[in-house]
Specification:
Elements lengths: L1 H4 L12 H23 L1 H7 L9 H31 L4 H21 L10 H20 L4 H8 L1
Helix pairs in contact: 2-3, 2-4, 2-6, 3-4, 5-6
């Protein structure tokens, strides 16, 4: 398992279950889409997270929108590195899953330490995040579950 998470050689051979590999594609489409939305329309991105921007002063609103757009750029860069791994460095896919799970759980931890006041009710962002973490957990498990043909090929 550790050999799949931290491969000695980062080549284009994916050794986990193929469903784990292909499950990363919709995750990345979703993450990159969210990133573009945060960059292009930061006001709507904040609304998806149930942040009431009407209570902000003009300066605070501008700062919040700038922060949202900058965070979107960061997530776009992360997503593009993940796409590169899927296309050219498939041996890194299990590590990419681990990285994305760590990033997601780290954000949740920071939001627990420094909570943001939100409007009542369930936001669309929280539903999407639950779907994303479920997909990441399943994808990570499948990507570190070595395929039978991958095991046989390494013995020969």
């Amino acid at each position: 398992m550790l050999g799949l998470l931290f491969p000695r050689v980062i080549d284009n051979r994916f050794r986990g279950q193929w469903l784990g590999f292909w499950l990363l594609a919709p995750v990345l489409v979703l993450k990159i889409g969210i990133a573009f939305g945060s960059i292009l329309t930061p006001r709507q991105a904040n609304a998806a997270d149930a942040i009431d921007l009407a209570t902000f002063s003009q300066a605070a609103l501008r700062d919040q929108m700038t922060s949202t757009a900058l965070l979107g750029l960061l997530h776009l860069c992360i997503g593009l590195i993940c796409v590169l791994a899927m296309i050219r460095y498939r041996a890194m896919v299990p590590l990419i899953y681990l990285w994305l799970v760590f990033e997601f759980l780290g954000r949740r931890t920071i939001l627990g330490l420094y909570p943001i006041e939100r409007t009542p009710g369930t936001s669309s962002g929280s539903i999407i995040n639950l779907v994303l973490i479920a997909m990441l957990a399943v994808g990570l498990a499948l990507s570190i579950w070595r395929r039978r043909d991958a095991r046989d090929g390494e013995r020969a």
